[in-house]
Amino acid sequence: VKVSARATFSKYSICPASLISFGAMINGTKKTCTFRLENKGILDFKFHIYRAEQDVAELPKKRPRSDVLFAGDALGQAVRHQPLLGLFLQARFTLGMFTVYPGFGSLPPGGQQMITVDCQAEPPGTCKEHLCIDISGR
């Protein structure tokens, strides 16, 4: 009896790879940006997007993950960030000035998913968020 197997990890790409900057915006305006998540492996994988627990530079190295930073400015004072409660596993969620969707999903081999980030420049101030994309089997 001949038996064979091949072990592999999920392979993926994120384009653009890290910073999405909305730049300076007039208070009350809205801009939309997207990034692409692509399954480059031979297995299906699931993904979840959520707020990083701390700054990207300080994330522990023992658990690799993909990090995306969203930044937007509307002239004025700094914006306080919303609490984490209720953000995990939501199809659409808001963090400060940003709305991200979809927040989770599944990709077949060769599949792509466009992730949309809306920035609503209200109230005046600066908003930066660090988000993680958790990909199963990476």
Automatic annotation (TrEMBL):
One of its GO terms (cellular component) is axoneme. GO terms for biological process: axonemal central apparatus assembly; cilium movement. Transmembrane segments: none annotated. Gene3D superfamilies: Immunoglobulins. It comes from the Eukaryota. PANTHER family: DLEC1 DELETED IN LUNG AND ESOPHAGEAL CANCER 1, HYDROCEPHALUS-INDUCING PROTEIN HOMOLOG. This is HYDIN protein. It comes from Columbina picui. The gene is Hydin.
